[in-house]
Amino acid sequence: MRILSGIQTSGTLHIGNYFGALRQHVALQDQGEAIYFLADYHSMTSVRDADARRGFAREMALDYLACGLDPARAILYRQSDLPETCELAWILSTVTPMGLLQRAHSFKDKVAQGLQPDHGLFAYPVLMAADILQVNPDGVPVGQDQKQHLEMARDMAQRFNHTYGVEVFRLPEPLIEEAVAVVPGTDGRKMSKAYGNTIEMFAANKATKKAVMGIVTDSTPVEAPKKTDTPVFQLWSLFASEPEREEMFERARAGGLGYGDVKKDLLARLQAYFEPMRERREALAARPDEVEDVLADGVRRARVIAEPVFAAVREAAGLGAPPRAEPKKRGRS
Ligand code: ADP
Ligand code: TRP
């Protein structure tokens, strides 16, 4: 089974990214051939600062490795190191109806929030389809919010195949872990970099404490029963076993449980959970060349998988043969 997924390098990863994406990505490396990438082209639709983008990609590579991605098994590459993806995005855009893109929830949401859309934002799902289809994966692990983008990728695959009478692309399946469909942010909306409501995975302890203590709660007095379908309990549950959760929810319903105590316990659990990863991350951060080597090896392996697909696409569409790879430079004689 081949698996592919990516995360935009548009900010610092938070626990929503971890439970909604990263954790599953790492677990899937044991299930088959796993390919992950740092989506820096995608980040261009929101981040306009070159140093910030470079930094986010570096940090995210560290995050993946700290969380247990094993480069001996899984592939990790930086999206812009494989620029052929952009060519495929163009090709796919020619079989993508405008109406399909106009129906994209994430595009409509951003426009509704007052963002002045540019073509990159509009075409975002096409680039995403190219990321996916170029390696013909069986499954694409994504959060619920990306499901529609995946359906669009399937649609584009079908349209290309149909237009040119070929079976170049397989239809990728979304792999969605329903249990943690959406991690709420500290303000109760979906946790997202864009909303400033995140709890980061590796922030300094003080910042983590501030975020946890700032989780919204209602003004129910301590002695009153508490609703458990609220952000503080949902977040706490991420770090608890099923029996622990049942016990806690029982106490909440009985009354006499203060939100402050739940937050303190959440903070302790959260810090203990990420501590071993934090240590691994610090050790890796001291060896930046090693991280670059992982990415260089990653793109080389990704290219080996994608090249036959690129060639088949060009052939099917009547384009020229793919440019030949540069012959390896010989040492001076
Ligand atoms: P953000 O909304 O913070 O910008 P991204 O859109 O870059 O996050 O998402 C990166 C990955 O993390 C995606 O697979 C997405 O589904 C997942 N993800 C993001 N936010 C959450 C959340 N609050 N709950 C669960 N998964 C999430
Ligand atoms: N759009 C995804 C997100 O915002 C990131 C992404 C880009 C992606 N290309 C992808 C995810 C391909 C899965 C497959 O999180």
The distinct bound ligands, ions and cofactors come out as: adenosine-5'-diphosphate, tryptophan
Helix-strand topology string: EHEHHEHHHHEHEHHHHH
DSSP, total strands? 5
Tell me the Rg in angstroms. 22 Å
Helix tally equals 13
How is the largest sheet built, in terms of strand order?
1-2-3
Structural class: mainly alpha
Query: What would the principal axes of the Cα set say about the shape?
Result: globular
The portion of residues forming beta strands comes to 5-15%
- Major sheet details: 3 strands, parallel
Distance between the termini: 45 Å
What features would you describe in this structure?
By secondary structure, the protein is mainly alpha-helical. The chain is 53% helix and 7% strand. The protein is built from 13 helices and five strands. It has helices at 15-28, 40-43, 50-66, 84-93, 98-102, 105-112, 119-133, 147-164, 205-213, 231-237, 242-254, 259-285, 288-317, and strands at residues 2-8, 33-39, 75-78, 139-141, 173-175. Strands 1-2-3 form a three-stranded parallel beta sheet. It starts with a strand and ends in a 16-residue tail after the last helix. 34% of the residues are buried. The mean pLDDT is 95. Tryptophan binds at residues 4-8, 39, 42, 128, 131-132, 140, 142, 146, 149.
